[in-house]
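Following up on my earlier message about NAP. Here are the inputs again, as you asked, copied directly from the submission form:
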Amino acid sequence: MKILVTGKNGQLGRSIQKLISNYDHHKFTLVGREEFDLSSPESISKYFDTHSHFDVIINCAAYTAVDRAEEEADLAGEINHLAVKQLTEFANSQNAKLIHISTDYVFDGQNESLYLESDNPNPINVYGKTKLLGEKSVLETMPNNAMIIRTSWVYSEFGNNFVKTMLKLGYEKNEINVVSDQIGSPTYASDLAKAILHIISNNNFNKKSFPTEIFHFSNMGETSWSMFTMKIFEIANLPCRVVSITSDQYPTHALRPKNTTLSKEKIRSHFKLLIPTWQQSLKECLKEII
Ligand SMILES: NC(=O)c1ccc[n+]([C@@H]2O[C@H](COP(=O)([O-])OP(=O)(O)OC[C@H]3O[C@@H](n4cnc5c(N)ncnc54)[C@H](OP(=O)(O)O)[C@@H]3O)[C@@H](O)[C@H]2O)c1
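Thanks, got it. Here's what our run produced:
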């Protein structure tokens, strides 16, 4: 299959790139904003005018700066919504399948239990709102042959992320304050990349046509940012003390949902995936980083 992957310099894009040598029966093309700028409809059209006939598009690119999005709502909307619509139109015209990545931040975080794919979204920040509009364009424009995978708390050995920031602080400080009243499931980007590559080889995905659906993916288990940090320091053997604080004590530009733990049962059973716990995967990632 000819597979186009957007967002080649992001955490997920780089994690996919790391694995594609194991899939050399497919031809992967990875693009970054230089050649494929999602904030410019002309850039996207120009790319597709000269490169076509993809069988699968994996859209890993996104506007992901959650706080900055509050001030850059238009730009976030262009990338997370309008460009996604354009991608779906191109995918339809080419008969290509689409895997689009979305977020737990489409939920308001008020659920007491795990979020199912069928739960009602109700985003509480601009980033979540633009990602939800992106999901809606996929569902409306591509009723068949697309998958929306919502993920959460993504980290990796690449780029900037929570794990790398905490490690740096852990080396520099004796004590740090971390929010304890936001609960979710961390996702090692490498596990999501493996899951995506597994899915594109699965019979359920390779059917001539399948209805578009939403799936949730993160590592198994749940934690808070403060417990996550304690585990990072334990594995990295850092003596830094973690003081648990509330979200009110750490105001941010964008509101954050309180509990966005995603249920992974649907993707696990549909594609027979084995998903590691967040603790196992954190160890793997820290081995790569340290
Ligand atoms: N990170 C998280 O915690 C998290 C949580 C839930 C869901 N997600 C979703 O998971 C997916 C992958 O996230 P990630 O963590 O890999 O994000 P990331 O590391 O921030 O990467 C996003 C990529 O998108 C690219 N991009 C941004 N604006 C662009 C534009 N105008 N044109 C083309 N490319 C552009 C960036 O390019 P540059 O490298 O040039 O900036 C970057 O490579 C996204 O859909 C995100 O919404 C992420």
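One observation from looking it over: Residues 99 and 224 are 28 Å apart (CA to CA). Hope that helps, and feel free to reply on this thread.
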